[in-house]
Specification:
By secondary structure, the protein is an alpha+beta fold. The protein has eleven helices and ten strands. The protein folds into two domains: 135 residues, Immunoglobulin-like, CATH 2.60.40; 208 residues, Serine Threonine Protein Phosphatase 5, Tetratricopeptide repeat.
Length: 358
Amino acid sequence: MGFGIWDSGFVPNSFKSQIPNPESQSQLYWTVRHRHDIFRSALVAVLIAVLAGPVAAQIGRIVGVVRDERGQPIKGATVAAENPDASPKSLTATTDDKGRFAMIGLRSGFWTLVARAPGFETESGRLQVRAAGAPALTFTLQKKPLPPPSAIGGLAAKDLQTDLQEADQLYNSKRWDDAIQKYQAILTKAPALSVINLQIAQAYRNKADDLSAQDRKADARPVYDQAIGAYEALLRIDPGSDKAKIGIGMTNLEKGDIEAAEKALDEAARAANATREVFYNLGEVKSARGKNDDATKAYERAAEMDPYWGKPVFALGKAALDHGNKTGAIQYFEKVVAVDPISPEAVQSQALVDQLKK
């Protein structure tokens, strides 16, 4: 397997690379165009192409991983592919816990790929797929730059960046209390960085999850309440923060307060930028409350938003099975295996299909 060398082009803010595989007649061409903001340009996504063989086909599959600049997988990143000449014209995949994503059904031609993740620079480029073997892609995304000094009270950006890196290291090491303390100290120094409340809230939620996993009798509700408090702190500064509203709903769901979760998620689902996770979890809440028709609608909406996410389709399969619709359940489970083959739900779905067909 051969690896290409990235060569700078003469087009401003872009470069082009050709990566040939000596074992295949197919080639992968990738042109990355940096997306600039008012602070600095985005760093490039590094792509590693692995072409499986020389056989040509009209329909291909792309798999890959999204990582940060330290090589850590980014969960929940989205990778969108668009080709106006294909059908369907666009596909979207979301990374799992290990930063992996998969797309099935890409036809031959040029596709524009865009990788996004909260807190990271967005990367885009054009990819020409010519081989049946799908290229395995690795996106390496750079964290967004800090706000200008005027937005952080004149603090030294370098010092603040160091503090944030230290807090992130504590977070990645699952030292939740230490990470929370560090993030709160940063927020005290730079109140304008109110978005840090999202990270504080997530750390509290992770702490509560760990507490429940370690001791089932432990009462993690006060810790979940602290997470909700962090989201509410952000809403007091930014009342339109949908991420905070969604976070409150998700946290109430984890806490076990289904009524509060339903209320929060109903509100979040009405937002213009409601995510697939909102509708999936809304379906879970509706199902728990016995509102099966509403649950089905929510699951279907989540599946429509990301046709290559198996989780809501798996939920639809379980719902069909619960209602005695064996044929419908098998169809849903087989769809999970087809559209999201590397997911845990695909493994469960295949096992259920094998069992139901006996």
